[in-house]
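$ run holo --ligand "guanine" --emit tokens
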Amino acid sequence: MPLIDGKKTAKEIREAIGREVTELKAETGNVPGLATVLVGEDPASAVYVRSKNKICKELGFISLEHTLSEDTKEKDLLALVNELNQNEAVSGILVQLPLPKHIDSIKILEAIDPAKDVDGFHPVSMGRLVMGTADLAPCTPSGIIKMLDRYKVEIESKHAVVLGRSNIVGKPVALLLLHRNATVTICHSRTQDLPKVTREADILIAAVGRPNMVTKDMVKEGAVVIDVGINRVDGKLVGDVAFDEVEPKASLITPVPGGVGPMTIAMLMHNTLKAFKAGS
Ligand code: GUN
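-- output --
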């Protein structure tokens, strides 16, 4: 089975980070700190943040958890972000998205000190990503590149097709692939004859949030297929790729769950460690 095991790859990365943290602690007495901020009661967000905090502790990081009510005022959230910017024990700040509708997410993301922007969502981080000088790249996109590298997938000169143009996944992963000399096509809801475009992909990345939308007629024989979708259908997690019918055509494919998801958290820890080392 041509599976990319994100769970195993993420575990290996976490273990390497854990070992480095132990060494840093012995040398300096200090460890990285991650502050997470969860606003409201979105159940999926609560699961993600809990998982981030748990792994933080497992790796020996300081974990500062802020859980705020749905009706938190924008100015109070801004004040918390400013406080975390000043806190020397905090190497990285993660404000879980989406935020409640009455809060301007852009304003909050812009308030985070770029040096602590472990999500890579600040406009300064995004600008550096465009220029190819980013220290902290968004976690899901950098997790995808890491997986491709671990599985020795050649990126240079390949045609990578990205489905989805979100700021969190589609746009940044397209840029990372471009910096690795892939030829990159970004597709979206207005793309004409989508199957014709996706069939040209050597590397196909699906990040649209529509269950099973990538079917076998859309995939070239031997393509590498990365499924970023996490959709809940009848209580079950499914990706954007119709796995059972696409898997026989793919040379490599990520499962859902156990593919991209665990890599995102591993890269968050990687970014937090990097921010810590840059600041100490
Ligand atoms: N919501 C969905 N994915 C992410 C992520 O990677 N970071 C944050 N902060 N919120 C998210």
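-- notes --
The chain has ten helices and ten strands.
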